[in-house]
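Appendix B. Chain record.
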Amino acid sequence: MCARSTGVSIEISHVAGPGLIPKVLQQSSSRTLPDVLMLDNPDVQQIAESGALSAAVRLRRHGRGHGAGRGAGRTYAGKLYGLAPAVNTLSIFYNQDLFRQAGITTPPRTWDELRAAARRLTGPAATASR
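Structure tokens predicted for this chain:
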């Protein structure tokens, strides 16, 4: 409705889940990406790393900046690439004894740390010690 009243034309294109990232990468390589793109938080860094996205200028809303410290899923290499229309709260439940046995001293705080912990907990050494 706002677009119509301002004379702006909006074309919405929906791509189903599994096809989204390949489509975005294809559009990036052919320089046909849309002006606005909605990605899930974990995908923003991968797409930004590919060079497909332009970093956003520092935006301000209600006197507060939306910078890198306000949501790592929207940033890459210290630059802001997106704003979150909604935010999820994620938690991890873990077995402290198994972590200790695998030599993991602190719970994972990033996706990379979670993947590394999973490798240590499920690799051949982990199953041999149980």
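Further analysis of this model is presented in Appendix C.
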